[in-house]
From TrEMBL:
Record SMART domains: Trans_reg_C
Record lineage: Bacteria, Pseudomonadati, Bacteroidota, Cytophagia, Cytophagales
This protein's UniProt keywords: DNA-binding
Protein species of origin: Dyadobacter luticola
One Gene Ontology biological process: regulation of DNA-templated transcription
InterPro entries: OmpR/PhoB-type_DNA-bd, Sig_transdc_resp-reg_C-effctor, WH-like_DNA-bd_sf
GO MF annotations in UniProt: DNA binding
Descriptive protein name: Winged helix-turn-helix transcriptional regulator
Annotated DNA-binding residue span(s): 186-283
The keyword DNA-binding belongs to this UniProt entry's keyword annotation: yes
Span of domain OmpR/PhoB-type: 186-283
């Protein structure tokens, strides 16, 4: 069993190394992008703030004073290409104070004849946060399946899993999605006075538009597909974070707080905390 533990520990280590290298490449690409945006405005002295990692696939960097939005798509695409980053992504430009999205686009717009949205619009000197949200790396998610050499240990692990389950009195219930009118709108989920666009990761809450990160959209989708049901904290972590090897206990509270602010304009929707258990999306009919 000792050998089994050593071998099984190899897969997650490789995955963590890949995640670290990816984050490092994005860090360098965003810093280069911020540098060239400042240079294009004649600023060669301002300090570039550290790149922040919001979650496994979302990164941001603060750009002071002036943002040359017309140059952003090309400079960012070039910076990512230099780091050999080929994942799809969404870009949003947010106000530093309010976090409201001022501008944004999807990488596929670079290939469109008209270019990205909002190009040519003049931006006032201000403080902006440039945020990029990448599509999850499906190769890493599926990578664990390629470790065929762990199969001989499957029976032993299944036995240990049964023993652990049998001793545990706390059960995480698997939720079944029942008949839900929110699931009958194609790529959009309708709830209350709000609408979640699954493809664009855009939330429209009572006519207010919010561009979501990958993780925000995933968490909100989980809530919307199970309206008025109590979701245990462990279930949320497993459904939204653990599938990609990212588990941070406080992440649930932080992301729920963000979603609450975005949904605050919709009086028919509320994310309620259930003490000691988890959260529930309350949707008034």
């Amino acid at each position: 069993m000792l050998y089994a533990g050593i071998l099984l520990g190899t897969g997650p280590t490789f995955a963590n190394n890949d995640n670290f290298r990816f984050a490092e490449k994005v860090n360098i690409a965003l810093r280069r992008t911020a540098h060239h945006l400042l240079i294009s405005n004649g600023d060669s002295t301002s300090t570039i703030e550290p790149v922040k990692q919001v979650d496994a696939n979302t990164f941001s960097v603060q750009v002071e004073n002036v943002l040359t939005y017309d140059k952003l798509p090309g400079v960012l695409a070039q910076s990512l290409q230099m780091q050999h980053i080929e994942r799809g992504y969404n870009v949003s430009v947010r106000d530093c104070g309010s976090s409201k999205i001022k501008l944004g686009y999807n990488f596929q717009e670079l290939r469109q004849p008209g270019g990205v949205a909002c190009q040519g619009r003049t931006q006032k000197g201000s403080c902006y946060v440039l945020q990029i949200s990448f599509e999850p790396d499906q190769a890493n998610v599926a990578g664990g399946l390629s470790n065929w050499w762990v199969l001989p240990f499957g029976t032993a692990l299944a036995g240990l899993g049964f023993i652990a389950w049998n001793r545990s009195r706390h059960k995480i219930h698997v939720l079944q999605v029942g008949e839900n009118p929110a699931l009958n709108a194609g790529n959009k989920l309708l709830f209350g006075n709000s609408c979640l666009d699954l493809v664009g990761q855009v939330l429209e809450s009572n006519k207010t538009i919010h561009q979501l990160t990958y993780r925000e959209a995933k968490l909100l989708t989980l809530f919307v597909k199970h309206p008025n049901q109590v979701l245990e904290r462990d279930l949320i972590l497993k459904s939204v974070w653990e599938d990609e090897g990212v588990t941070v206990g406080r992440s649930v509270d932080v992301f729920v707080s963000r979603l609450r602010k975005m949904l605050s304009n919709d009086p028919q929707v509320k994310i309620a905390a259930v003490h000691g258990i988890g959260y529930k999306l309350e949707v008034l009919s």
